[in-house]
């Protein structure tokens, strides 16, 4: 098991890991360039992918949780999800067939790809000290992909906002109003493969 934080705040990530050492016993990597979100078409976090020893994705983009911390918010029971992961690890039982897994998640749309490019440009300009250019590109990225949390929420702290403050709750309200779109597989009932 490997966790990847889509973040650039290494100190905050280290503090989080240190404060949760009783539960985090696996490597945590940091992808400050958001390459993983582009490679696997991830637009919501957290997202889990199950990849076997042959580098085959057996379960693409799946909104899964290790605890029930967010159960009231998401309606997702972590116990059912953990059981499904255990069945895969122990018995090789997957949630879908290999053919279904291959076509389960659509590629990013042209707008989503453009949003990712504007986001990366905004981060680059921010790091180079060009606040005006950075803000313009963050705005454009958010317009192109309004329900992409890897862009909208990730941009909040980069723009001086609080990722758990009022702006987050505005984003959440928009997300709820849009029907909570998820770029991935939603296994609410966790069916098993035939």
Descriptive overview:
The chain has 194 residues and is mostly helical. The protein has nine helices and four strands. Mean pLDDT is 83; it is low at 189-194. It folds into two domains: 3-102, no CATH class; 110-177. The strands form two sheets. Strands 1-2 form a two-stranded parallel sheet. Strands 3-4 form a two-stranded antiparallel sheet. Helices cover 47% and strands 8% of the residues.
Structural class based on helices, strands and sheet pairing:
mainly alpha
Low-confidence stretches: 189-194
Give the CA-CA distance, first to last residue: 26 Å
Strand sequence of the main sheet, in spatial order? 1-2
What is the strand content? Answer: 5-15%
* Overall strand count: 4
Number of domains: 2
Radius of gyration: 17 Å
Task: Throw out a few tags for this protein.
mainly alpha
List strands and helices in order, with pairings.
Blueprint: E1 3-5, H1 10-19, E2 28-30, H2 35-39, E3 48-51, E4 57-62, H3 71-74, H4 78-91, H5 98-102, H6 110-127, H7 131-144, H8 149-158, H9 166-177
Parallel strand pairs: 1-2
Antiparallel strand pairs: 3-4
Quick rundown:
This protein is mainly alpha-helical and 194 residues long.
